[in-house]
């Protein structure tokens, strides 16, 4: 064990001379059939815990009104599957309008962050200017401040802009996140300086270096930011709850809470409502997860 | 050496800087200013001196909220620092179908806390899945009041937070595991260390920094909890409002004609100090560990 505790060897720093991974070329890395079985059993167990509740809710939402959902022996598959409850939810609350409102907010937030954070991240990491360190320090300083601490005075600010009770007011404060600026800063910084210098020699200006050299190499981080911004905006509850007072303008999460207050005695309807909010975000994530996981790994290796 | 006009960097930085000033820095200053007023949600309000802070001292709801926050943090910390690491080790090895499992384990993170809490409300209901199964198995004679008893409600919300957080911290650990040198594992294996000893002596020291970071993230987010408690308690904060969190109190004072943004701001300042303490403590542990 002396190798492990040897302080001279850096444990965390990835060494650049590490040979590429070879699949199963080391005796210790190959998996015995028994280990394989144990691993899959564990994976299946965790799968049941993590997505079981969602399946249960999906099942409840599809169970017919005549079907007993309170049985002692829970049934996963509906005996009389029906989409009636989805229709009933849409008849009771304007759930499609809520979904559109959520989408509007999410698109504004994603657009703002992708553009604003990459511009600022590029400038702070790749361009020389007076005050660069101070600007970076300001972005870092906001990280210690949980958003909830300033949420009330943010509301006052948005109200003074005349944007209380508007969807734009919901989107506005989150449109450029300090953390996203720092993530972009980190991503741009990992590019070799020589590439920039070569481009300068070739006569490229800052914008050209941003568009043709910077952006293409940080696509992974941009997709992580976009995915997180979309999920964050679509799922947010506290902020739209504070900003919005008019039921017409509710986003899905606020509308759902309203629905659950109205139909606390009908789990089928609430189940249908939650699925309307849940399914789109899962589809978005499942489609983009490739970029997400790749971007996360990319960030880890470079960071 | 500069290769651009002096204002170009500023053109790129100014949008983000404006947002930072208008929506982060100014609100933090304004929170302090507002806390000395009785500002209303619809506008207006006057300077009231230290009145809000005097009220804070005698606020029984706040005392319960702070107690709940501490319990929340103390219970969440061990579970969310250890379980996600085990999960990360489980999904690290590239087996067929492992991407599916990674994505599936991340699903609760992607879902809104509102959706998740509504699902668990149904599962924990008097006539829900958990009580139904437990009665069927004969473990209990009557339904357990997961959603109406003060302590069971808090415990339910905590379990929910842990369940929803697993995938999030798993991904952070997974990224960190990629940086733990493979040679170390191999060398340890050659020295005859089994999987368990390699986990304790190679993996854990390798992700130590990440573990500290995750502990900070967990503590702060446990103190900021809102949606889970709000939805599970039906927005009421449990019996007698004893299951409120500090953020729930802030939200309550932000609404309607009875609302008081001045008092909500004073509560925000309490929240700030409450979240800063664990950060400082853990940062200190980290520094001491690094010196040793």
UniProtKB/TrEMBL annotation, chain A:
Biological process terms in GO annotation: transmembrane transport
Gene Ontology cellular-component terms listed: plasma membrane
Parts of the chain that traverse the membrane: 37-56, 103-122, 134-155, 167-188, 209-234, 269-288
Pfam families for the chain: BPD_transp_1 (PF00528)
Localization in the cell: Cell membrane
Gene3D superfamilies: MetI-like
Region feature (Disordered): 1-25
Membrane topology of this protein: Multi-pass membrane protein
Listed SUPFAM superfamilies: MetI-like
InterPro entries named among the record's database cross-references: MetI-like (IPR000515), MetI-like_sf (IPR035906)
UniProt-listed CDD domains: TM_PBP2
Keywords for this protein: Cell membrane, Membrane, Sugar transport, Transmembrane, Transmembrane helix, Transport
Family classification: Belongs to the binding-protein-dependent transport system permease family.
Protein name: Multiple sugar transport system permease protein
Upper classification of the organism: Bacteria, Bacillati, Actinomycetota, Actinomycetes, Propionibacteriales
Automatic annotation (TrEMBL), chain B:
Keywords: Cell membrane, Membrane, Sugar transport, Transmembrane, Transmembrane helix, Transport
GO cellular component, one term: plasma membrane
Pfam annotation, one family: BPD_transp_1
Listed transmembrane segments: 7-26, 70-91, 103-123, 151-176, 206-226, 261-283
InterPro entries recorded: ABC_transporter_permease, MetI-like, MetI-like_sf
Main location: membrane
Localization per Swiss-Prot or TrEMBL: Cell membrane
PROSITE patterns: ABC_TM1
One GO BP annotation of this record: transmembrane transport
Bilayer disposition of the protein: Multi-pass membrane protein
All residue ranges annotated as the ABC transmembrane type-1 domain in the record: 66-282
Family: Belongs to the binding-protein-dependent transport system permease family.
Name of the protein this chain belongs to: Multiple sugar transport system permease protein
């Amino acid at each position: 064990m002396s190798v492990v505790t040897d302080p001279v060897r850096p444990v965390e720093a990835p060494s650049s001379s590490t040979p590429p991974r070879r699949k199963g070329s080391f005796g210790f890395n190959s998996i015995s059939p028994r280990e394989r079985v144990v691993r899959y059993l564990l994976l299946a167990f965790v799968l049941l815990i993590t997505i079981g509740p969602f399946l249960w809710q999906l099942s409840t939402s599809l169970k017919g009104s005549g079907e007993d959902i309170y049985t002692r022996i829970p049934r996963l598959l509906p005996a009389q599957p029906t989409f009636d409850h989805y229709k009933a939810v849409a008849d009771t609350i304007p759930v499609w309008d809520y979904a559109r409102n959520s989408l509007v907010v999410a698109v504004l937030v994603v657009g703002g962050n992708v553009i604003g954070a990459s511009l600022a991240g590029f400038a702070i990491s790749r361009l020389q200017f007076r005050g660069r360190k101070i600007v970076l320090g300001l972005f870092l300083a906001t990280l210690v401040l949980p958003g909830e601490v300033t949420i009330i005075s943010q509301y006052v600010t948005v109200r003074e802009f005349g944007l209380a009770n508007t969807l734009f007011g919901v989107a506005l404060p989150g449109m450029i996140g300090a953390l996203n600026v720092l993530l972009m800063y980190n991503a741009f910084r990992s590019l070799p300086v020589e590439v920039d210098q070569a481009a300068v020699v070739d006569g490229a200006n800052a914008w050209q270096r941003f568009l043709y050299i910077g952006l293409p190499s940080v696509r992974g981080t941009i997709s992580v930011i976009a995915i997180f911004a979309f999920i964050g905006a679509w799922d947010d509850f506290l902020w739209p709850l504070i900003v919005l007072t008019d039921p017409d303008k509710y986003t899905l999460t606020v509308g759902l809470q309203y629905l659950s207050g109205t139909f606390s005695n009908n789990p089928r309807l609430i189940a249908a409502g939650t699925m309307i909010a849940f399914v789109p975000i899962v589809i978005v994530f499942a489609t983009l997860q490739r970029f997400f996981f790749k971007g996360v790994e990319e960030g880890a290796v470079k960071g | 050496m500069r290769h651009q006009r002096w204002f170009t960097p500023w053109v790129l930085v100014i949008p983000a800087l404006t947002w930072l000033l208008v929506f982060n820095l100014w609100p933090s200053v304004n929170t302090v200013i507002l806390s000395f007023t009785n500002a209303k949600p619809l506008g207006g309000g006057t300077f009231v001196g230290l009145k809000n802070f005097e009220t804070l001292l005698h606020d029984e709801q706040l005392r319960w909220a702070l107690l709940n926050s501490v319990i929340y943090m103390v219970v969440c910390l061990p579970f969310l620092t250890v379980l996600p690491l085990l999960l990360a080790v489980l999904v690290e090895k590239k087996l067929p179908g492992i991407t599916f499992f990674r994505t599936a384990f991340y699903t609760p993170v992607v879902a809104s806390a509102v959706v998740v809490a509504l699902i668990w409300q149904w599962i924990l209901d008097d006539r829900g899945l958990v009580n139904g199964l437990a009665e069927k198995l004969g473990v209990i004679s009557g339904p357990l009041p997961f959603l109406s008893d003060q302590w069971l409600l808090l415990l339910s919300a905590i379990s929910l937070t842990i369940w929803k957080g697993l995938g999030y911290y798993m991904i952070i650990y997974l990224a960190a595991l990629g940086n733990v040198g493979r040679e170390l594992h191999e060398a340890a294996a050659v020295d005859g260390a089994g999987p368990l000893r390699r986990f304790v002596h190679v993996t854990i020291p390798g992700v130590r920094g990440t573990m500290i970071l995750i502990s900070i993230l967990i503590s702060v987010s446990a103190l900021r909890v809102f949606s889970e408690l709000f939805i599970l308690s039906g927005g009421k904060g449990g019996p007698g409002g004893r299951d409120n969190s500090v953020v729930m109190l802030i939200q309550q004072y932000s609404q309607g004609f009875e609302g008081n943004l001045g008092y909500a701001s004073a509560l925000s300042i309490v929240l700030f100090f409450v979240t800063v303490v664990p950060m400082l403590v853990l940062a200190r542990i980290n520094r001491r560990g690094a010196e040793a």
